[in-house]
What does this fold into?
Amino acid sequence: MKKLSCIISLLSMFPLGYTHIASADPTSLGVGLGWSNSPYKNYSSSYYPVPHIDYDNGYFFIDDLSAGIYAFNNDNQSLSFGVRYLANEFKPHDSDNHKLRQLNSRHSTVLAEIDYDITTNWGIFSSSIGADMLNNSNGILVNADYTVPYIQGNLIIAPTIGINWADGKHNDYYYGVSHKESSCSGLRYFNADSSFTPYFEIGAQYSLTDNIATFGGIHIDKLTGDAADSPMVDDSTITSIYMGLSYKF
It folds into this structure.
């Protein structure tokens, strides 16, 4: 799935509508700051840098922490193959819970993805399927979402609703507790199965000049099923807030 920041950057080129995708877009670079809580028990919320890289020549694209090539790209549809950095991780020392501090680390990874986007008069539909490339979880992630942008002068607001599906390998890696970990920590053994995660995001961009813009947004995930039922988890709602500044060349 293309990130919302890329959709906002794309729409900023078309103040009268969003039913046409350009074959070559301006390059945009920027940086911001984000904050997110964690679903894990007694786990520190975190601040993190938000890089903004938006390059698209109609054949190859870089979209923040993802990059890829187009297999098909016309006026309103695209099919692409690429890679995306997945920031999910668990560091035992970041939790104040004694039992969770006895568990193994869970690392971020890189996904190989196939992505399909279609832009219509009613909004932007995106879907993707991704697989772990680094053999951390060997999991599969599937996503579908729908964005309806609103444009008023220099302001773009883009609300998105979507849903992720994660297979059992992904969930067991990030939310499962092995027999060995159970013996060491006192947490019950837990083999996590697949689950859905619905989410909502609202992103915004305001152009200060022809080249400089501010961006920001809020993203909310709602864990369900075995991800939410894990003994590692005490908050099934994950909220991320970000903001930053970008420059369009």
Q: What stands out?
A: Residues 4-11 form the longest helix (8 residues). Residues 12-24 have pLDDT under 50 and may be disordered.
